[in-house]
């Protein structure tokens, strides 16, 4: 009676194969659920689904289902202890930051705009109201709330290539970053850079203020 199956020269028990198969299905199902949840934040979900299919990036509205904190890559790199300017970073450095962010956050989801060298930490929709009542403490970060739009890559694009990708993949629908963890990350980066950075990051390509514009 055959107890094992050979795959690429490696013997595997049928039970192990079943577990691996279930894991693949589970990931596909989770991503499908995350996809549907993210589409609920799109002004026009059907058009957003078409954008993911055709361009790999869909426009979502902030302030309702989710908001985002936009942060310069230089600050995130400093927090992660990755040396060198982010503008010249290669895949190895960017991947090292991804690993740091995955360890830093208790869940959550992070998008990196590779071309603009900006990170977007997806947070609960009312984060902007509670961020800092006495004034913005992070001049190098900006909350994207109501009347802001964010370009988000298709859910399975988790490698640092193309225009934007998931630096930290959303593991389940609504799995957003804790605002306190984002704030702690910003403080860590500022401390590594010797104090608050001057100015705010320029408005990047994937998100816009006001009505969404066609690509």
Percent of residues in helices: 25-40%
Radius of gyration: 19 Å
Number of helices in the DSSP assignment: 6
Average predicted local confidence, pLDDT:
81
Low-confidence stretches: 1-12, 16-22, 197-215
Query: What profile does the largest beta sheet have?
Result: 5 strands, antiparallel
Q: Looking at the structure, what is the overall shape?
A: globular
Strand content: 15-25%
Strand sequence of the main sheet, in spatial order?
Answer: 7-4-6-5-9
Secondary-structure element sequence? EEHHEEHHEEHEEEHE
Give the beta-strand count: 10
Structural class: alpha+beta
Distance separating the two termini: 59 Å
Describe the protein in words.
This protein has 215 residues and is an alpha+beta fold. It is 36% helix and 21% strand. The protein has helices at 14-39, 45-55, 73-80, 91-104, 127-130, 179-192, and strands at 5-7, 10-12, 57-61, 67-72, 110-113, 118-123, 141-144, 148-153, 164-168, 207-209. The strands form three sheets. Strands 7-4-6-5-9 form a five-stranded antiparallel β-sheet. It has a three-stranded antiparallel β-sheet with strand order 3-8-10. Strand 5 and strand 6 form a beta hairpin. Helix 3 (73-80) packs across helix 6. It is globular and about 45 Å long. Mean pLDDT is 81; it is low at 1-12, 16-22 and 197-215.
